[in-house]
């Protein structure tokens, strides 16, 4: 397999000048390694129209959920490195290498980084009839009921799983976690009262919170958001708890540099689109500063994040499932 990929990469390198002129000449698949309806999917769907326009081709979203994003990421790691398979993924790229005993790919060698996309705060939300209010109420309920409280997440190596792990480690209290293929399918379960709690990003939770279909307890940012002005931060409710999820775009390793640069230019132009910026603000996020939307800044940040999370998640080991 590795030999075939290497040969493909060599053939692509020889064809690079021609490729630069014709790319993209067919639809580009953007893999979302989670189920539809979650925050990664939501971010991709508001980006796809300006991104297609800036790239000058048709970008098609494909959801490949499961195993905390690693199944979709593996699809990209093993795809032809020709620029026609890309991925939008989150902070899980940096936590999965510590959480999995065996990964199907090496995060640092299997991908070309294209650029960072946007940082998104998280929110703790719960079923509409959750019998406590506010973050302190939620924590007291967890303390009282322990593992009789169920908390959904999108699998080992997902942002929601990171958030659930950090809370349990901070409280030194285990809950019962329930893994889904993404957090999209979790909302129906929360609204039906079958899932007690989930920590998920504002890009997917905002419409549920503002319409009152779920109970919201706290935002994990350092300040309230204009898009959710009534939702206090965990910090202001007396329990420091901050998590921000970052997103980045990837291509398979070996994608020619001219193509990476072309995709990066399209991504940077996309993130300057005023309508996209306005839509992002409604969902509690914003584009990364332009200096971070480069392959080099993204790679350096990914490396730093893997190193940052390793000791934290190793220490939280007993709560990481
Ligand atoms: C995550 O927990 O990583 C995301 O919420 C998963 C998703 O986008 O569905």
Can you offer a commentary on this structure?
- By secondary structure, this protein is of the alpha/beta class.
- The chain folds into two domains: 169 residues, Bordetella uptake gene, domain 1 (D-Maltodextrin-Binding Protein, domain 2, 3-Layer(aba) Sandwich); 117 residues, Periplasmic binding protein-like II (D-Maltodextrin-Binding Protein, domain 2).
- 43% of the residues lie in helices and 18% in strands.
- It contains twelve helices and nine strands.
- Strands 1, 2, 3, 4, 5, 6, 7, 8 and 9 form a nine-stranded mixed sheet that branches.
- Helix 3 links the parallel strand 1 and strand 2.
- It is globular, with a radius of gyration of 20 Å.
- The model has no long low-confidence stretch (mean pLDDT 95).
- Bound molecules: D-malate.
- D-malate (MLT) binds next to helix 3, helix 7 and strand 7.
Any ligands, ions or cofactors bound here, and which?
A: D-malate
Strand content is: 15-25%
CATH topology annotation of the largest domain: D-Maltodextrin-Binding Protein, domain 2
- How many β-strands, per DSSP? 9
* Mean pLDDT reading: 95
Q: Given this structure, which CATH class of the largest domain is correct?
A: Alpha Beta
CATH superfamily annotation of the largest domain: Bordetella uptake gene, domain 1
Note poorly predicted spans. Answer: none
Biggest pleated-sheet summary:
9 strands, mixed
What is the N-to-C order of secondary-structure elements (H for helix, E for strand)? HHEHEHEHEHEHEHEHEEHHH
Overall morphology: globular
Rounded to an integer in angstroms, the radius of gyration calculated over CA atoms is: 20 Å
The CATH architecture term of the largest domain is 3-Layer(aba) Sandwich
- Span from first to last CA? 31 Å
The helix content, as a percent range, equals 40-55%
Count of helical regions: 12
Derived from helix and strand composition plus strand pairing, the structural class reads alpha/beta
The overall number of domains is 2
